[in-house]
Predict the 3D structure of the following.
Amino acid sequence: MARISDLIGINNNLDTFTVGSGASRAWFRKEKKRVNLLALGDVGSTLLLGLRLLGTEAIESIGIADVRPMVPERFEFEMNQIAAPDGRLLPPVRALAPDEWFDCDAFLFCASKGVPDLSNKGDVRMAQLEANSGLVSSVAANAVKAGFQGLFCVVSDPVDPLCMYAAAAGLDPDNVKGFGLGVMNARAAYYAGKDERFSSYLTEGRAYGPHGGDLVIANSVENYDDALSRELTELTVKANIRMREWGYKPYIAPAISSGAFSVIAAISGEWHYSSVNMDGVWLGCRNRVTDGGTEIEDPALPEELFARIKHAYDNLKELRNGL
């Protein structure tokens, strides 16, 4: 049996381990957080809606920015007209001036250049790396100049490599998290709910690795079935391709499952799926933010499952070394 902690040379016999420190996490100690979001395209606008509806207990305010004129004003106008009949207060939405982008506790990077259109077949996530790496590097560098000390959340594809670029620009690596694995967990659960063979995933399953081809879905950590898990992984990885083949861009589930739900869980210190810095490599796993660092779930894993996760980690490490 092996554990995730073995990937970075930590000898751990417990079910969790912690990376990073709480030295730069003053933002986490606030009861409610100020969240700012950059780019209100398909993903960003859907994520904004989720934050507005779900963020009452965790979010003080939501700042929004976009390089297109009048787009933030449009969404400020519409989002603040969403009200619950019971009168409960939803987090207010405010359009940001450029010098206010990083005046927040959590910054959500949803910007993207040249999202491939529907004529592009196959998995398009990595196709966006060249364009989006320069964009996230520029935004992260500006965050460093502004003295940003909060959580830098990468939502744009490809999530895991873009986290590496953000950290390379000078951000505290332990305050950079990638939000892509939440929807992979949700997609695996979708298929598990439709096919009894996969039903163990709903109570015992886990998702690991990047938001893409090296994804690892485990039908069960305790009763792992490699063939079944690989079949469920294949279905999960190709879910976005299936949607594109139907003629639609698959952004609603990612924006809510990987975005709204997972970001709110992260800033609230709750367990969720996201990519975490492990020795300069961002690997997706179940984790939670704490005052003392990031606590990562670390159960003993069957060797076949650990080998799949290590393969994904090694590929991400090779990618990092080539940056």
User: Anything to note?
Assistant: The radius of gyration is 19 Å. The longest strand covers residues 281-290. The chain is about 35% helix and 20% strand. Residues 205 and 221 are 6 Å apart (CA to CA).
